[in-house]
Design a protein that fits this description.
Number of helices: 8
Strand content: under 5%
CATH topology of the largest domain: Helix Hairpins
Helix content: over 70%
Radius of gyration: 21 Å
Protein name: Diacylglycerol kinase/PAP2 family protein
Cofactor: Mg(2+)
Distance between the termini: 66 Å
Oligomer: single chain
Number of strands: 0
Mean pLDDT: 78
Subcellular location: Cell membrane
Binding site for ATP: 24, 72
Keywords: ATP-binding, Cell membrane, Kinase, Lipid biosynthesis, Lipid metabolism, Magnesium, Membrane, Metal-binding, Nucleotide-binding, Phospholipid biosynthesis, Phospholipid metabolism, Transferase, Transmembrane, Transmembrane helix
Number of domains: 2
Structural class: mainly alpha
Length: 233
């Protein structure tokens, strides 16, 4: 009987996580980022202490999102009308998630920056020695590849809607190309900020879903870097 109670407790806990993933958009984003970080650990020389820090940080973000969801659910159950105290509680819970997310970005920056610097330095040197028109060719390839993928999924039109987001793919491809050309951090930050604004506008206008925009961004970034690395442009 005790074992059954323990098993039921585990099942309820897992159901809580699954329900949070199913209903909360931010939870999906957190899990995707966590998955990418864990995959990156295989490709970079991450020590066991760095991995431990990453694991704790990821756990903190996911736990904060689950607690935030639980608080929102309880408040919605208790007060099915607007109440200023309920608003304060929801904002405070969301603030806790934001704090853990900012901490996660800082931890990731500290751990992966040095590991990415050597790779980025070699890649930037290759790009700087390439012909000016090669970057334009890369962007054309990204556009064509995006249209082909859209055709495979059969959603939307070549210029509007569908999986993945073409605007997001092209914007992040341009941002990636700029980051490979220049060594100025401010230029890199601004280029990715503009790409992020472009992606956000596609979601706000309801042309694309968040998943389509994220896939488009990753597609543009990875394809651009793949072309530069494989073909040694």
């Amino acid at each position: 009987m005790k074992f059954k109670k323990v098993l039921d407790s585990f099942n309820n806990a897992i159901n809580g996580i699954v329900e949070t993933v199913r209903t909360e958009r931010n939870m999906k984003i957190h899990l995707i980022v966590a998955l990418l970080i864990l995959i990156a650990c295989f490709f970079f020389d991450v020590t066991k202490y760095e991995f431990l820090i990453l694991a704790i940080t990821i756990t903190m973000v996911i736990s904060a999102e689950i607690i935030n969801t639980a608080i929102e659910a309880v408040l919605d159950l208790k007060a099915n009308y607007y109440h200023p105290l309920a608003k304060i509680a929801k904002n405070a819970a969301a603030g806790a998630v934001l704090v853990t997310a900012i901490n996660a970005v800082l931890v990731g920056y500290i751990i992966f920056w040095d590991k990415l610097s050597y790779f980025s330095y070699n890649l930037i040197n290759k790009v700087k020695k390439s012909e000016p028109y090669t970057i334009f060719i890369v962007l054309v390839i990204v556009c064509i590849a995006t249209i082909i993928v859209k055709a495979i999924f059969g959603e939307g039109t070549p210029l509007k809607g569908g999986m993945p987001s073409g605007h997001s793919a092209l914007a992040f491809s341009i941002a990636t190309a700029i980051s490979l050309i220049t060594e100025e951090p401010i230029c890199v930050m601004l280029s990715y900020l503009m790409a992020l604004i472009t992606a956000q506008s596609r979601v706000d206008s309801e042309v694309h879903t968040i998943l389509e925009v994220i896939v488009g961004a990753l597609f543009g970034i990875l394809l651009t870097m793949f072309i530069f690395v494989v073909f040694r442009i």
